[in-house]
């Protein structure tokens, strides 16, 4: 099999994520140096695949990008070839353009396709695999909510960014005897909130997996104040849910998906906490700052390993698979297992237990 | 005169600011080591002065705080002894408690008072000076809008934090072909927006001093897109003003002062830009992250110089003065000159001109 | 069993390591909050155990230390109670003071001892365990060379510091067409060099586990220059070995252990590379910068989990054990398995293979 | 005059320095956008000028380089066209190639030359100016030892890097009760040592401008230890001088200029301090890490202003001048005034006085 592969394609799909360039670099270098392949870069994710916007990749093109955020290939998080938005006579309709993609790949002689993406992009990759395209996936998401891998690349960088913000808020909270709220990403899973909250010394962490009781949060903050700790740091995942109040909060979260709208849940909880504690409260919404910037050392290593292993997987014919970290090894696991279900924080797991042991409240 | 001073007090007033601890440390060390004085720390700013909450400072207490954000003395940005809020029979009334402060200082034998604060705190300091209290000021504000000094401490740190956020947004904007908006502090002066915008490679900077025309901002972003730069970074000071539309924007800004309310102007402009350019837009509101965290090297040096010079000024009897940087020297200047008028960005000055030369639009 | 434990001790031994304070904090908080124990801090590692220098720990004492480097308990990397250096009549002799330690622990009513340390300190802990002291270990070393755990705390921080240095050297190497050498810690294992080298985009990585041939290193650098990459970044672990030249290099390394002597191997290889390539070469020896500073987010989380789990292990009576990360779980493993053999880089493992795939030479 | 200038050249000379790319970017953008000029980039400094290695610059080429260390134009710190090293029949001789440079500039129609460099490169620039070449200089050096400007770009970044190293060493020094020595750049001027020492909370700073008495340094460290501060941080500029011992130390410094030789003065003083205090001592030599990496926000702003003002100066015909910061303005000052004499730290100036006030010893 190995001998037959001559040319592979690579694309990045979905939201921006620190480490994308490091993966691209490793794919290109491994393909050229180890296997003597040609590599075609597909521009702007599946949009480029549909519209045949591609260019040959060289070692020169990936020089110096290891530490850079973003993706030199570009990405979109809208375009799905199987349900491709087309404007016709002023109407937006959806068409299946997957055959066009397959045709583009065939015409260019691409024998293997590396899809770097999260749940959405990898699901599209799986559909292409089922139609006979030799796809290998690389698990990307700052949210870390992909099953089948210990961790996704980009997560450590997002946690680091949020932790730095918490370090900064800490000193200000303490000086002013205030409640400081940091709203971080995480609609369906609270990994960023949990990890940055533990690392940043938060007093309260609110995540989708553990519906919270606002009265308990207030009690916790007041109890701290009575013991002389007259400030509190609260980290809130954008998908956090109030007990018995899911409907209301969900609506708020839905709004916060709207491009420029801000601060659904952080602002809402902030107002309530200010009322029930009588303490001044301030809210920061980190937003896309979490998606950008230079990846951490750990993410650069993981990205390099993923990218390199993805090409190995292509050469071993492991199509329909995704590279995954099963510490300390990188394995190839079926995409089928990886997509469709979000990996969530275990409310009874060790990390939540440790967090509670050091005095963090989850409002439960 | 010098021989008569035995004991000085020090307080921090107003909003949190990186470098406060470095100033406190320098005041305490200089007073003890160079002049053999006693130092009394006044807790929580003017609140502690009114209520006589003070404690003796030692070198031990200021060990290891040079690089730490916040203030070990605590601060509030509400309490004005000359107009002190008191609740009486359920009613909030304002009383003059300045005599009580003076009595507290006299009873404790405090011969000199170092007030570390911004325009508000220094104005209070000036009032006390006029009543005979030997006050020396230290100019603090992340906004850099104090007259009479080249720069305030805390400003470089705030600019650095905002610049780091811009670095992160840059890669994401580029990967996604988006408009990324960063709303930074600055109600009356656009220094943080201007400096971080230039340092962070912004494409548009909107500041209070240069009312903007939204149509010109849209044109600028569209012109970039046509030249192949399909993303734009926009930095907005919270006090930015639309030409001829001040009233509306002002109202929005007013709301954003409300404790937990967020994203007045950033969100508002973001929605308009998305409409007029048709490009996806995302907004980040940095908020109090700008006030916290470890001060930059430059701010630690400036703070150390200010703190040390403030004690020198006390010993030289320069009361009613504020230490100020007139590069390369630290001088003592009358508080009267320093307070009352905000130092604003000169729309025709060199920095704005240089920013325009490298292609930044101010929407004018 | 659990009901009987009332008071535990905690000490930090060996070289400084980012995350020590985070472990101490988690031990103290978990013990007090979850189990209502008393905690005694033993000062300056085993030195304090021998000399009975201890103090009660409170939540107050560990407030605000999560993000701080160093250890509030102090540490030494010399004192072994089983072979304790004593000066007698001008002669240095070694005595067994372990009984004195045991007596100190008994008299103070310490029912469990948490030893935070590397191979040396944990070996001492194991010896105490064999003498009946209820010891639980926490695996600490920036070198990551402890068996039985996926990773030690402090390692990620050291890698991050070295990677930041490489990022800085990169731009300078490129501008000047130079060879830049960074010597990092790692006498017996090359983990820091390997990880930071991959993360920092090194061209050559030299580690103890893969003896290098200097001629091959020169060839690699020259080949790069011929392809237009007129600079190279070389990361060298202090214990790197030249093929067939171990004796000489060993001697050099031995010297570099000498307190203030510097740059054994980095300098030696630098001179040789300059000669064989004709390219200007510069050497940086990071030294103890790698041991200090605020721990990364990942290390703070790991340290918090370790510290909390160590107290759990004490309460579960798992003495003679060490907490260890077996991703994603923290387990207790016998100290016997953990100490004595260094965990080394596998020359044929996945990470080295990935590093070679992206073009890094190990000189083999 | 302005109308006649059509094409300018730009080169970077001397050692690498954070901010070089930011200056280049500002020169190119200002020339193209504001004045509609062509810009020619001269590769590898004066080497490229002699050998006519040049290429046209576009806005595209300088996109995304604002925050990047190094120089996209390359640099050398050896090549002087007026004394150009040539190998002839195995002998190294020096020739004057300045006419060749002038011819290259004329043939390419370059009407103005922006030289970005330190004392050496600007002196060459001045010589060319005297021969009729229209030169404008931009003051670059991490050492900040250029007269005629308040500050050079690159200095703040170098200070920041050294301060970060000190922050890391601090925690380790404290945990281990050690003396930690950091050797930083600065052969003739101690600016980096002074500023980073003040910012990093050093206990001792040794600089060329203040010859030190080792006995006084030992006394200071011992006095600290007696007061319970059992560690000390010592920052040493590579050109620091012992009182009455200049000859010896000078020799050592001279050796440290040798490409790969390391740790002249830091190591030497470390050994002596270890002996006289009996405290463990460790030495770090930061080396070229100080020259690399992303420039600070302040340096990016200053670089942008310098680059833009340099083109303004060209258009105003201010040849033989250098742009300089006279806070808050950028002016053009005669190169004659700027070169030849190093700006040194004033031993009796305010910053040294403030440093002493907070307890820092200079060994005098």
From TrEMBL, chains A, B, C, D:
Substrate binds at residues 141-143, 178, 185-187, 238, 282, 288-291. The record marks 120 as: Important for substrate specificity. Its EC number is 2.7.1.11. ATP binds at residues 15, 78-79, 118-121. Its main location: cytoplasm. PROSITE patterns: PHOSPHOFRUCTOKINASE. One of its GO terms (cellular component) is 6-phosphofructokinase complex. Gene3D superfamilies: 3.40.50.450, Phosphofructokinase domain (3.40.50.460). Residues 7-314 form the Phosphofructokinase domain. Homodimer or homotetramer. Belongs to the phosphofructokinase type A (PFKA) family. Mixed-substrate PFK group III subfamily. This is ATP-dependent 6-phosphofructokinase. It comes from Heliobacterium mobile (Heliobacillus mobilis).
